[in-house]
Design a protein that fits this description.
The chain has 230 residues and is an alpha/beta fold. It is 41% helix and 10% strand. The protein is globular. The model has no long low-confidence stretch (mean pLDDT 93).
């Protein structure tokens, strides 16, 4: 069974059931050149990149649709009132809207690197030990969730309390997949950089200097701490 995506491309259930919009290919421009409207959080960022990947599965590009900038919580209303034809969204919204929407692309962003933990540089330099312990705790929590924590009633109660989501929703949402040791996929980061460079959205020349902001020593120390205290 395919894993449920936390970032599907969705359409209204009515238009899906009618056969009007059942696949990404249905977002192609009309014969008269009319563009389908697709909801995106804004220019740049993972939302746009995710839509571009979904379009690519049908041989389309961002030039083949009309972006409509709106936040994920507003996507359902825009689908229902005809303001957009399809929309990008992120959990828990697609699960909360399952009765009113349908996914037309669920696997386009699998494996894309989309998050990181950041520290203030001055604070990090002054509090290296605290940063290592925080990172170790973060990694341990992630590993526990991957090892079945999402099925543990006690853990689900804690997550429900702090996310203010009912447990039945937590059980149903699509979940992100992270590396066990906290490392990131630089190839994915570079692919995103190349996309935004081609889109004319970068304000710098050349490749980003990842090493200047990636504290590998903190991550390595956090993993060593976990191994020594497991």
């Amino acid at each position: 069974m395919a894993l449920k995506s936390p970032v599907p491309l969705i359409v209204s259930q009515e238009r899906f059931d009618s056969g009007e919009l059942t696949s990404v290919a249905d977002l192609a421009p009309g014969e008269d050149g009319t563009l389908k409207k697709v909801g995106i959080p804004g220019p740049g960022g993972f939302g746009e990149y995710s839509i571009a990947l979904a379009l690519e599965t049908a041989g389309l590009t961002m030039a083949d649709i009309e972006p409509v900038f709106l936040g994920p919580p507003d996507t359902l209303a825009a689908l229902q009132n005809g303001g957009i034809d399809a929309g990008w969204t992120i959990e828990p919204f697609p699960t909360l809207w399952e009765a009113e929407t349908e996914s037309i692309s669920n696997d386009h962003a699998r494996g894309v690197e989309l998050g990181f933990v950041a520290f203030n540089r001055d604070w990090l330099e002054a509090n290296r030990d605290a940063a290592i312990l925080f990172t170790a705790a973060y990694l341990k929590a992630s590993q526990e969730l991957e090892a079945g924590g999402f099925s543990d009633p006690e853990i689900k109660d804690i997550i429900s309390q702090y996310t203010e989501l009912p447990i039945e929703t937590l059980d149903a949402i699509g979940k992100t997949i992270r590396s066990a040791d906290g490392s990131f996929d630089e190839t994915s980061v570079r692919a995103q950089e190349a996309y935004f460079r081609d889109a004319g959205q970068l304000t710098y020349e050349g490749d980003a200097d990842i090493e200047s902001v990636y504290s590998r020593d903190i991550l390595e120390a956090a993993n060593a701490y976990l191994e020594a205290n497991s």
